[in-house]
Amino acid sequence: MKKFFYAGLLSTLASIICSLLTNDTTYIYKVAGTLAVIGIILSGLYLQTFTTEFQQRGHSNTESKEDRKQRTDSGINWALFALPNTLCCIVVFLFF
After folding, report:
1. Helix/strand/coil percent split, the chain, to 5
2. At residue 25, what are phi and psi to the nearest 5 degrees?
């Protein structure tokens, strides 16, 4: 779990450094915002938030507890990756 969060921090830091080098704050939106959206979408797909209750019931009956735990952990990991990128975009939006 920590690896995904640190990867998110690293990608946020890279977008901030590139933004400072180019003197363009919109670069943060482009890089960190894109990575945040990708992370949120992947998290939602793994956590099955875009499916109906009937599809979720069908999936839960056919998968084992280990598969369910692995899928849930993957969803949480992608959400942790998206968290620093999302916070960076919000801070830049509010203060710059």
Report:
1. 85, 0, 15
2. -75, -15
